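User: I'm curious what two different proteins look like when written out as structure tokens. Can you demonstrate?

Assistant: Sure. I'll show them one after the other, since each token string lines up with its own sequence. Here's the first protein:
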Amino acid sequence: MTNDSELRNPPTAAPATRSPAAERMRRHRERRQMGLRCITIQVWDREIETLIRRGLLPAKMRNDLHEIREALYVHLDRTLGATP
């Protein structure tokens, strides 16, 4: 037997989904709470070549943005100190 509250507020099958903007904001707030900042930087070709010479980036990955980012993380950790 159903009661009046079930008729007025039927249970939903799926939880509410977040919009892409709400999800970006959630991730932004999460990073800020962890003390992280998200920035965009420009990198010179010669800086990429330096990452390769220092063994931080394989030469065949010179155009892979993910690999360049990872090499920069290693460089920053080595020069500024490891992150917590």
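Here's a second, unrelated protein for contrast:
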Amino acid sequence: MNESWPKRVSISDAVIFQEIEGECVLLNMTSEQYYGLDNVGTRMWQLLSEHGKPSVVLEQLRKYYQIDEGTLRRDLGAFIAELQAEGLVEVEAAAA
């Protein structure tokens, strides 16, 4: 699983985001698509925008949620992949 874990994630310059009552609304200015994140997705988004390193985000999330690392790593990886597919983030792959 580590082979696909990104080294760094950065928020696309084309994305505007706003937190509203614990949830986050994203707008991709390029595609003109809106996205809504629940409270867990919002926390992941905040940490990614603050730290950029998925390994740091994973460590921070483990402090908040009672979940095993493997499940959290898989969920965070899927979240990042979805954000990337929608053009909301840019991902720097880890060196092989």
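A detail about the second structure: Residues 8-86 form one domain.
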